[in-house]
Amino acid sequence: MKQIERKINSLPSKTWYWLNLNEAVLTWNAEGSKDSVTLEPSADEPLFLTVTGEDYAEKEIKIETEPGTERVVCMSYQPGAHLETVTEVKVAKDAKVRLVQVLHTPKTAVLVNRIKGTVAENGRLELYQIFLGEGDTYAETLVDLAERQAGFDAQLGYLAQNRQVLDLNMVVNHYGEATVSNIRADGALRDEAQKTFRGTIDFKRGSAGADGAETETVLMLGEDVRNRTIPVILCSEETVSGSHGATIGQLDEETLFYLESRGIGREAAEDMMARAAIDRLAHLIPEETAKNWIQKGLEEVL
């Protein structure tokens, strides 16, 4: 087994190297199996896919659309071993794709999940990602808003606990005029979990009238958790609008006292707050099968 050291989840614009935030580094086997599949989701009903694989396998999944169509793809990640997936999404002109990913990584596995998206004129890509695993997870999303009025909306929810590592990187490139992006990430950290979120909105030359926003809310439920949030906005165009913000905090004593006075103990209160961000996303997703994946995952990790 040939082990190599890989650098992934790289920031497009580097910061101070001593912070160790420019990329993630992990050891990987370079001799795993590889396979590729092209999905053809139906216009009438969502496509549901369970993603598994052999140890150190690499899976490539392609999703393509025709102009003016709407497609829904829901993916449940249940790797029994180390797994890398690359999902390539091409959204045609006036088309819409909703991609739902429920990532449930067991303690014994490492999951590397990458998305490469391209959105054409007046197209829209909606991404829902729910991270419920107990093993280390590395996720990277690279989206090009290639043409005029292309749109991207990302909703992320996570719960990291024990000594889990959750490393997220999202880069949105605005190329077309009047393109729009919105990134929202909410979650909770418990025990000794470590989470890094890199969010980059890059306004390229020619993206006049573009609008991009990113926000994150982090609930820290333990003194030994570690959170790192790196919001970045890059701009090569003048007439654009970009914003970012993060809210990071703990459960305050007044809230705990209020809940305890109504018969909700500290541990139950923390469980309730930890699942709040996940429940919010579950309510936003119309597909009942995906909702069931999320609820089952919550029951297993809480």
Task: Describe what this molecule looks like in 3D.
It is built from four helices and 18 strands. The chain is mostly beta strands and 302 residues long. The chain has an eight-stranded parallel beta sheet with strand order 3-5-7-9-11-13-15-17, with no helix packed on it. α3 runs antiparallel to α4 (288-301).
Give a count of the beta strands, DSSP E runs of length 2 or more.
18
User: Helices and strands: which structural class?
Assistant: mainly beta
| Strand order in space, largest sheet | 3-5-7-9-11-13-15-17
How many helices does DSSP assign? 4
Range of helix content: 10-25%
Q: H/E series, N to C?
A: EEEEEEEEEEEEEEEEEEHHHH
Mean pLDDT: 92
Q: What characteristic shape results from the CA principal axes?
A: globular
Radius of gyration: 19 Å
Poorly predicted residue ranges: none
Strand share of the residues?
Answer: over 45%
Break the fold down into its secondary structure elements and pairings.
Blueprint: E1 3-8, E2 24-29, E3 34-39, E4 47-51, E5 57-64, E6 70-77, E7 83-91, E8 96-103, E9 110-119, E10 124-131, E11 136-145, E12 151-160, E13 165-174, E14 180-190, E15 194-203, E16 211-221, E17 226-235, E18 241-249, H1 253-260, H2 266-274, H3 276-284, H4 288-301
Parallel strand pairs: 3-5, 4-6, 5-7, 6-8, 7-9, 8-10, 9-11, 10-12, 11-13, 12-14, 13-15, 14-16, 15-17, 16-18
Antiparallel strand pairs: 1-2
Helix pairs in contact: 3-4
